[in-house]
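Could you help me review a protein record that somebody else here produced? This is what I was given.
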Amino acid sequence: MMTVLVTGANGYIGSKTVSVLCEKGVKVIAADVAFQNVDKRAMQIYADILTERDDWYSYFKQPDVCLHMAWRDGFIHNSTKHMGDLSTHYRFLHNLAANGMKQIAVMGTMHEIGYFEGKVDENTPCNPQSNYGIAKNALRQATEQLCKENSCIFQWLRAYYIFGNDDTGNSVFCKIRQAARRGEKTFPFTSGKNEYDFIHIDELARQIAACVTQKEVKGIINVCSGKPVSLARQIEGYIKENGLPIALDYGKYPDRAYDSPCIYGDNTKIKRILGL
């Protein structure tokens, strides 16, 4: 039976992915500092990966794959923690690879790309415009190099815009649900004209689980829908689908200067993995 270590297992994406992996019959080692959201079928191991340890690989009972999803302040793009934690994330992954880990998959983000218009593939140049994007991009480059040096399979799972039908998480979709629950009738918004690649959290978890349970497709893998949709259209549809008694108040916030007018992922690799 394959064993997958999932760091950040208690997080919004991590907890969903742990459940999908368990459904696939995978032995899951869930690593985090809290476990209230973690599927009970997973083995829970307390681990603060920001601290040092001589051999993390042995501590986690020598799993076949590490799915590294742990990250702080992912929705606060210019938090100082991103750059401060960068070397710690690298040290953790280096420790795993040096001690015997044979497959490392890391959660990436389209914010590594920076300002870009059109379809993003594995060869699209990166010019990140935020601390979050800069730190993730640097970790991607460093992890790819250390995997080469240690004969370790490297997978970088680049996610785009995530939404779901629950109140957890920090996305704009979750914030709209929370505002509606508070009885607010309007939600301050941008112009909504930007087009992004949206993916439901359940589908994202399914794609991530499929990526890490195979070894043939490597490198940068876009976990995405492969289709651009305007932010306004996606959220208006989300509000209608969920019957939320709230309306978007357009133009209350300016569009962020570093957000692309239209950006979406090339889904060729993930379709191959899923057999589509």
